[in-house]
Design a protein that fits this description.
The protein is mainly alpha-helical. The chain contains 2 helices and no strands. The radius of gyration is 11 Å and the shape is elongated.
Length: 46
């Protein structure tokens, strides 16, 4: 299976879904937070 980098758009969808389930909050260390970090890291590489 090919590796696909996390994009800011994908990370935003993940964070939005997580926030909706948690009364608008995204906790530190959650999957959504890690996705945002990965997207930022991938964007900075370009």
């Amino acid at each position: 299976m090919a590796k696909t980098n996390m994009t800011p758009k994908s990370a935003g969808r993940i964070q939005s879904a997580g926030a909706k389930q948690n009364n608008g909050a995204v906790s530190k260390g959650s999957f959504a937070a890690r996705a945002q970090k990965a997207a930022a890291k991938n964007t900075a590489k370009k």
